[in-house]
Design brief:
15 helices; globular; three-stranded antiparallel beta sheet; 3 strands; about 75% helix; mainly alpha; about 400 residues
Length: about 400
């Protein structure tokens, strides 16, 4: 076999390795975080100055602090055994419920949504914490009672009622977008657990009626949806944000205007560093930059799919699928809004958008996925057989040193 023939085979062998899921998660997360950090630095500078902070880097500094905390959570979480996540799952969920109750009691309202708590000068969004809590809790409960999900009572008790309670607390605060993303987490968890398909039809109909009722309670939501559905957007009505997001993407072309060269960030595009950061990526890095984002999320999806299909532990399957749905579906919704395929829902792009709560909890969620990936069948043996980076580096240095000594003697 020639060298050129062996390369494809070695690539296929590497992809089939039990450690592939772990490395896909590392690569995808690195790409998204680094690209997001660069664009947040660019897009948040103007809003930081306008906020009266006195520095163009105040928003970026907050993002860096959140990144450091999130990376620590990722590294620590990725080293934890699966049993650790099973044991703390109820406590994570109950803590998030307590925080959501604190929000309703004395939280801060932003953009019409009461979803924030201010602690020591920093804002925290407990609903992001609740997404992780729901994914882990449902992983534990549904893996234990999966054989009893054939009737409606067992679907509701205990998993369904708890999930409805958490989503209800978020809806009381007015955050419809986050509540819908939680609904996706719950639906995927029940689907992977093996709940009958007829229950999803009933739940879908009820959710549709509920969304219609909630939309009718806010004039802003109705105006945005009607303007989006009619396709009659102009830059002076409810479609201002989506119109300028489209202009940002269009002006980027193939290669973009260059890092930091966005025009829309100068007060034209609201939430340029958050909900509409994908538009700024397209403006500054062009079609190439947006494709890189899509490829990174595709890598994340492949990794989660591998974990779910290769694992034999039901908790791992359900929790990984729920977390993966949270990250990937939310990314798809965010991008669809920017592309005007959906009305504005106000959900950030995971691992990319500014926002300390979103970044910290997204990185923590990836840490959980990495922990589950490390315990795929055969993964531990693959990691042990593969020499560490430090050992490989030391071996290369030692080999080079021996060569240098041999040349001197010669």
């Amino acid at each position: 076999m020639t060298a050129t023939e062996s390369r494809p085979q070695s690539a296929v062998t590497a992809f089939r390795s039990p450690a592939t899921s772990y490395y896909l998660l590392v690569a995808a997360t690195t790409i998204l975080v680094l690209l997001g950090l660069a664009v947040v630095l660019s897009s948040s500078s103007i809003s930081s100055i306008r906020s009266g902070s006195g520095s163009a880097y105040s928003g970026f500094i907050v993002q860096v602090i959140a990144l450091v905390v999130g990376v620590v959570a990722l590294v620590v979480g990725s080293r934890m055994p699966v049993m650790f996540w099973k044991r703390i799952a109820p406590w994570v969920l109950f803590a998030s419920i307590g925080l959501l109750l604190m929000v309703l009691a004395g939280g801060r309202t932003v953009g019409g949504n009461k979803a924030w708590i201010d602690v020591a000068g920093f804002s925290f969004q407990p609903s992001e914490f609740a997404k992780l809590g729901l994914a882990l809790y449902l992983g534990v409960v549904l893996s234990r009672f999966r054989h009893k999900l054939t009737n409606l009572r067992d679907v509701f008790v205990p998993g369904g009622l708890v999930a409805l309670g958490v989503i209800g607390l978020v809806l009381v605060g007015g955050d419809l977008g986050t509540a819908l993303m939680m609904g996706v987490v719950v639906a995927v968890a029940f689907w992977v657990a093996g709940a009958p398909a007829r229950f999803f039809g009933i739940a879908g109909a009820l959710v549709g009626l509920g969304v219609l009722a909630l939309v009718n309670t806010g004039t802003t939501r109705i105006a945005r949806i009607v303007a989006w559905a009619e396709g009659s957007c102009s830059d002076v009505n409810e479609c201002w944000q989506q119109t300028h997001g489209t202009w940002a993407l269009a002006s980027g072309g193939l290669w973009g205007l260059g890092p930091g060269m966005s025009r829309e960030k100068w007060g034209y595009l609201p939430a340029a560093d958050n909900d509409y950061i994908f538009a700024i990526i397209g403006e500054e890095f062009g079609l190439v930059g947006t494709v890189v984002v899509l490829v990174a999320f595709a890598m994340l999806l492949i990794a989660v799919t591998r974990i779910v299909t290769r694992s034999t532990d039901r908790f791992t399957q359900i929790a990984a699928a729920a977390i993966g749905a949270w990250l990937v579906v939310q990314a798809c919704v965010n991008i669809a809004v920017v592309l005007q395929l959906l009305p504005v829902l106000g959900v950030p792009l995971p691992l990319v958008s500014s926002g300390g709560s979103s970044l910290i909890l997204s990185l923590t969620a990836v840490g959980v996925l990495m922990s589950l990936a490390r315990h795929e069948p055969g993964a531990q043996e693959a990691f042990k057989a593969r020499p560490s980076v430090v050992r490989r580096s030391l071996a290369v240095v030692a080999k080079g040193t021996r060569r240098m000594k041999g040349r001197r003697r010669g």
